Q: What sequence folds into this?
């Protein structure tokens, strides 16, 4: 028996967006990508209108999930904390390294996402020293929780850490820093501290 602990990271409160429900007529997906050959995330589109994706590859197949930027950031921070905690409490584990190449982390072909992410969790199988990122489909009004699709991405601590670091970098891109105060500027304007909060 392998033991898998799982924590729920976030119940995202999403801003109302036009939902494109890819999975509408499909059967519920319940998949383990075990293990992922590669796992990454990317943001596609113009700054301010970027769409974020989580994508894994196994053999020649790729599996894509639509994810909100804030979910990806929360996941990245969650991975960092989770792995750090794990390594503190399991001294036999070698320290993980987030080693990646920007080019390898880009998503070249998005494909049709399996679903839009709702709940996201992180788990760990100590017997195999494998992390699992659990993505559940976002629940729409008429859906029961047991109808929601689920994809579990099994990956090494190194892969998870690389994903986390890259995702944080990604989230911070697409926003320029204000030349006055140095804080990132939102595409629709910026309340500058150096200008007493005047929008520029
Ligand atoms: Zn500023």
A:
């Amino acid at each position: 028996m392998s033991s898998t602990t799982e924590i729920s990271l976030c119940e995202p409160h999403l801003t109302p967006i036009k939902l494109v429900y890819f999975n509408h007529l499909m059967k519920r997906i319940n998949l383990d990508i075990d293990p992922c050959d590669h796992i990454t995330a990317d943001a596609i589109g113009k700054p301010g209108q970027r769409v974020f994706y989580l994508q894994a590859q196994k053999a020649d197949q790729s599996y894509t999930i639509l994810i909100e930027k804030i979910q990806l950031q929360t996941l990245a921070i969650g991975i960092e904390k989770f792995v750090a905690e794990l390594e503190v409490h399991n001294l036999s584990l070698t320290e993980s390294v987030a080693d990646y190449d920007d080019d390898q982390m880009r998503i070249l072909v998005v494909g049709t996402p399996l679903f839009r992410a709702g709940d996201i969790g992180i788990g760990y199988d100590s017997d195999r020293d494998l992390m699992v990122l659990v993505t559940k489909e976002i629940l729409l009004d008429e859906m029961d929780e047991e109808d929601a699709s689920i994809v579990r991405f099994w990956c090494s601590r190194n892969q998870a850490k690389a994903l986390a670091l890259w995702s944080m970098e990604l989230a911070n891109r697409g926003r320029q820093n204000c030349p006055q105060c140095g804080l990132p500027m939102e595409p629709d304007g910026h309340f500058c501290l150096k200008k007493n909060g005047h929008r520029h």
In short: Residues 69-89 form the longest helix (21 residues). Residues 178, 180-181, 183, 190, 192-194 surround zinc ion (CB under 6 Å). The beta strands are 4-10, 30-33, 38-44, 51-58, 61-67, 115-125, 130-137, 150-155, 191-192, 198-199. The mean pLDDT is 85.
